[in-house]
Amino acid sequence: MGDIGGMLRIKLSNRARQTPPSPIRKLAHLAQRAKRAGTGVYHLNIGQPDIESPEEFFEGLRLFKQKVVAYDLSQGNEALCSAWSRYVNKTLGLNTSPEEFLITMGASEALVFLFMTCCDPGDEVIIFDPTYANYIGFAAASGVTLVPVLSDMERNFALPPLEEIEAKMTNRTRAILLCSPNNPTGTVYTDTELKFLLDLCEENNIFLIVDETYREYVYDDLEPLSIFHLAPRNERVIVVDSLSKRFSLCGARIGCLLTTNPEVLSVTLNIAQARLAAPTIEQFASAYMLDHIKDGYLEGVRREYQARRDTLYQALSSVPGISAHLPKGAFYVIVRLPVDDAERFAAFMLEDFSVNGRTTFIAPAAGFYMQNSKGRQEARLAYVLERPDIEEAVKVLEAGLQAYPGRV
Ligand SMILES: Cc1ncc(COP(=O)(O)O)c(C=O)c1O
Fold first, then answer.
1. Residue nearest to atom 4 of ligand 1 (CA)
2. Which site in 45, 102, 172, 178 is 20 to 30 Å from 79, CA atoms measured?
3. Whose C-alpha lies nearest to ligand 1, atom 1?
4. Residue 396 near residue 360, CB atoms below 8 Å
5. Could you give the residue ranges of the DSSP H alpha helices within 167-247?
6. Per-residue pLDDT tens over the stretch 311-335
């Protein structure tokens, strides 16, 4: 009965059935139930920025005066490609041109397109475990086999040693996909690590795809680093980018892929034409925003996330039994908890525990690992709450750990 779809008993695809549910949303129904029962929930589980979207985006929306909301170009709105190119050239010192951009519905669509462009079904892409869990879904949708190389919490999730990556290369490997700054670990890969991957891709004649969704969110002494700083015109390099996190615009669904490789652009455009276009009004408003946003906007947001990271790290450090590393970027950290099973603990927090009518929602980390049995005691925390709430959320977590029957 497992493969029969509902009352109609019509078979559904293995591809869909084998796509794992998002580890972030898996327990969402328990959070809903807790809220319905009147419990307040601190969401440390999901990377939904709470900082207001820039006023310039809303101004752009108001300026949209066309009488018909028509399809835009499949490659993307021309003004947006130009504005995005100008923006990264100005803020990062790059030398991109608008024709090197292909606008997509979020980084998500860019990643699906790239899997389809770079791979035939059964071809392989190397990723680093733990990974952004939706890569697994994108790969399932496009028939790509993801090959994970384990990165270690003990080594702050740094790039695994060369021999371990090389050992995973086969004649079906088409690309290495890296996310930096990283979701879910908060690791920022160094320029040495990026160069090292670039060399490996050169040697094996494969693509290097870098997901730079969180590029500007780097802390302490770090500067935003794009792979294009290291390999400006390298045709095996493809950047995936997004406005979702950087400008708190997750719902606008605007992302892009960026490459100097004309063949990748033109073949991907064939696929993009089949879905016609990204949303017209959001592209219009995004172009206006990128051209008008104040210089200090991102720096202000970056500082706020850094302060939240410090608050979270400090709060976690005082909880007996929790181990965490100091994340250098994005707005996530993976922690190890003194529990038998982090998913069971997360469910316990939502179903059976609260302090003064509030509980804390964490994302169990096992779902971010492709290798089964990894991450069972780990959870991913996202610091997208204001600092006082982060402090309270950790206090509730600590109390929950003390009350949890499966504590180890
Ligand atoms: C690493 C990473 N890549 C891509 C995405 C998807 O972003 P978008 O909203 O642009 O589709 C996310 C969203 O959480 C992410 O964390």
1. 107
2. 178
3. 183
4. yes
5. 191-204, 227-230
6. 999 999 999 999 999 999 999 999 9
